[in-house]
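Exercise 3.2. Students should predict the tertiary structure of the chain below and write it as structure tokens, then compare their answer with the key that follows.

Predict this chain's 3D structure.
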Amino acid sequence: MTSLWRGRVLAFLGVILVAFSLRSAVASLSPILTEIDADLGVPSWVAGLIGAAPPVCFAVFGVITPILERRFGLQRLAVAAMVVAGAALLGRALAPDAGILLIATTVLFAAISIGNVVLPPLIKTYFPDRVGTMTAVYSTMLAVAAFVPPLVAVPIADTAGWRFSLGLWSVFAVLAVIPWLVTLRRSRIAAASADAVIAPTPSPNVLSRLVRLPMAWAVAVTFAVSASSVYASFAWLPIILVDLAGVSHAAAGSLLALFGAMGLPWSILVPLVITRWQRLGPIYAVAASAGLVAVAGLLIAPGSAVVLWVVLLGTPQMLFPAALVFIQRKTRTHEGTVALSGFAQSIGYAVAAVFPISFALLHEVTGDWTAPLMMVGVLMLAAIPAGIVVTRPHTIEDEWEQRHGAW
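Answer key:
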């Protein structure tokens, strides 16, 4: 078996640095928004747009990125995304007013959205024999990058100011440019070699084909279930726990941290379970069952085992690394991988952008949390048919050929 390191150290470092940059840029703003507001005066509508920007940008650029990839290629697009992200991070830190802060944040999330889409195909291109291992590394770095910035952002802001606290994360984006620049240069030099790692240019009509394929929709639903439950929980779980379980606000914050930490072990385990033991069905069964039990517990006996309910509610996060693996394993061609990555993330984040808002509106209309929590239960049920489809042993290309002829 090919060594994980032979000829691929730069790609390995590139994956780690890009993955860390993707989430640290998102997670480093909200903890110090109060300090920024005290200095710049951030209106509530601007804060609301900043909060809504990530899933909206992720959904929009999930569609646009495959088009850009056809024009520029994976490596160049990864370099461009990190250059723009680094510049936007600095622009956000130097923003003289709330308007520039919003613009820089939107540009930043657009760049991050492109990075989200290109990383799974890059992993498949450079590590086709280690998809599970590298997806575990990738998703674990995402989890770490979502966990670390909130811990250090406020202390750094208190010591060195909020601008420094925001701007320091640009270092990782700039560092992420270096290995992909060198890799791109080496790929060009070795273009004539038979073993050069050069991704072919995808066909322009691949993305449109996915709308007609159940496998593509199953991966998109998998992504949507995980992303929607996470966004809704981060927005509303503390309030739900205070209202239903009677916990203090401090305890609710700690329980939300526990919910977020649940993503870390699944990021390590799930890719390995899928790639080494081919166990797809149990992942969906555990995720959906845990989510449904958590909803039932919060509705029936919220205060009796609140920690257990939070742990179970965090368990469906295992579907996120599962979707990342499926993007690579349920495709046979490079163009299919890029298209499925864009399609699944676009659909998933579009649902995730709407879900917390619908959650809040339902609570506003009904006056309690029963209907919103039942909506989460329905979301978990959606994972069941998706799980049935992804267990089929074929790719999106196979599915298209069975239904419509040559890919």
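Discussion points: The radius of gyration is 21 Å. The chain is about 80% helix and 0% strand.
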